From TrEMBL:
<protein>
    <recommendedName>
        <fullName>Aquaporin</fullName>
    </recommendedName>
</protein>
<feature type="transmembrane region" description="Helical">
    <location>
        <begin position="162"/>
        <end position="180"/>
    </location>
</feature>
<dbReference type="GO" id="GO:0015254">
    <property type="term" value="F:glycerol channel activity"/>
</dbReference>
<dbReference type="InterPro" id="IPR023271">
    <property type="entry name" value="Aquaporin-like"/>
</dbReference>
<keyword id="KW-0813">Transport</keyword>
<feature type="transmembrane region" description="Helical">
    <location>
        <begin position="21"/>
        <end position="46"/>
    </location>
</feature>
<dbReference type="GO" id="GO:0015250">
    <property type="term" value="F:water channel activity"/>
</dbReference>
<comment type="similarity">
    <text>Belongs to the MIP/aquaporin (TC 1.A.8) family.</text>
</comment>
<keyword id="KW-0812">Transmembrane</keyword>
<keyword id="KW-1133">Transmembrane helix</keyword>
<dbReference type="InterPro" id="IPR050363">
    <property type="entry name" value="MIP/Aquaporin"/>
</dbReference>
<comment type="function">
    <text>Aquaglyceroporin that may modulate the water content and osmolytes during anhydrobiosis.</text>
</comment>
<dbReference type="GO" id="GO:0016323">
    <property type="term" value="C:basolateral plasma membrane"/>
</dbReference>
<feature type="transmembrane region" description="Helical">
    <location>
        <begin position="240"/>
        <end position="262"/>
    </location>
</feature>
<keyword id="KW-0472">Membrane</keyword>
<dbReference type="InterPro" id="IPR000425">
    <property type="entry name" value="MIP"/>
</dbReference>
<dbReference type="Pfam" id="PF00230">
    <property type="entry name" value="MIP"/>
</dbReference>
Amino acid sequence: MATGSQPPPERLRERFRIKNILYRNALAEFVGTGLLILIGLGLHMVHVLSKEKINTHFQAQVGWGFAVAFPVYVTYHISGGQLNPSLSAALFTLGKINMKEFVVYVIAQIAGGFVGTVGVYFLYLDQLKHFQPNERSVSGLVKHADCFIPFPSAHVSNITCFFDALVGTALLVFFIIAILDKRNRVPTGIHPLLFGFVVTMTAMAYGMNAGVPINPAKDIGPRILVGMLYGNQVFSYHSYYWLVTLFGSLLGGISGAWFYLFTLGMHVPELPIVERELTEESKKLLPREA
């Protein structure tokens, strides 16, 4: 088909498609994480601002699963839909991405989280102005902070926060790596939905101590905006607990990936040669084109 006879979307694609693989993947991580926060934080806003009259805790956690699944769907065959620095860290240690890709992806993810938070803030600005917090709000902190980022209760220690983040993220990444392992024969088309289910499961199991700190982009991006709007107390609160959960989450992601590899991944039977050829599509998960 001649270029002039192509439909407008295809002509635009040929003209504006980003040729650099790294930049293209970074854009996918930025947009995907922004969508994740735009949807997930919107669910959380409804949950908090309505004081659980509209979105219950159960509904919010199920919603977070879908908030992960659909952005992963739309970015899956570009960057792999990582959308989480802890998952990217795990993939880096497994040799799936290199250091340059890891750094660029994490920057894109945090930037996407920030932009997504800005969108939610302006959409709910009128509601925020009239919000009166109840006893669930963090003592001594601005009343709106709970709407954007989770905080541990005063009686929860930073040690508990660390292990909460480590175990929760380890579980998340353990199951994601298992799903990605082509020898487990999980159809590629349902990977994003399963990732969302894993997020919901983890959030329901470990959402009480520190608000499910399993994705640093979901914390750092919103926290930067809250700090700009309401002050630096969001960083210093609870003896800088957010740094504790950040390192716990990153370590948890790496630990979960390698725990799967050593306990189960090394022992999954190899695919027959014919079936292995049929699963070549799964290699598109993390494009490594030159």
